[in-house]
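Dear Dr. L.,

I hope this message finds you well. Following up on our conversation about the binding site, I have prepared a predicted three-dimensional model of the protein together with adenosine-5'-diphosphate. For your records, I am including the exact sequence and ligand specification that went into the calculation, followed by the structure tokens. Please feel free to forward this to your student if that is useful.
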Amino acid sequence: MKKHILFLGAPGAGKGTQAELLSKKNSYLHLSTGELLRKEIEMNTNLGIKVKKTINRGELVSDEVVLEIVEKNLGNHKKGWILDGYPRNLAQANSLNEVLNKINQPLEVVFYLDIPEEILIERLLLRGRKDDNEETIKTRLDIYKKTTEPLVKYYGRKSLLEYIDADRDLKTISIDIQQKMA
Ligand code: ADP
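The resulting structure of the complex is given below.
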């Protein structure tokens, strides 16, 4: 059973939902940088105040900020962990490698949730989170294509990639992922 897992895919692909299901089922830590950042905003912490505008514009917060969050939280797991929303660019992927080497817990699989862009936009508009309006969605998809999507090849070269067709119902996708975890 794989214990050190990464979810990759565009905003709206369903990473958060699938990561949550999988983490509950296996008692793994679900580490979503987006969720953790939104919590900081809700609680009005210094960090939250610092990142609020950036997030609401649909842009990425700095690599240093997210790295700190990841380092702080990865140590707390017991059985395994699932990263969702991190890394989002090559620099973050390299930092992650270093962190994981240090704690001696290398990535075992990267699930790439693939889905057509029209469906993404529909889903995000339906979700209606504060950073889900037409303009920020466009920004986030543009940033995704330019800076995050290259990670698909990066992890492909490392032979870690498992392709998941994310244009199916939630349960079917979940079963598919479970089977590929074994
Ligand atoms: P989505 O998958 O819909 O983009 P997330 O919850 O993963 O939603 O992220 C929401 C926002 O949080 C992003 O648009 C970005 O501003 C910020 N964020 C999350 N993870 C990172 C990261 N690894 N690097 C930089 N910014 C991030």
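In brief: The chain has one domain: 4-181.

With kind regards,
A. P.
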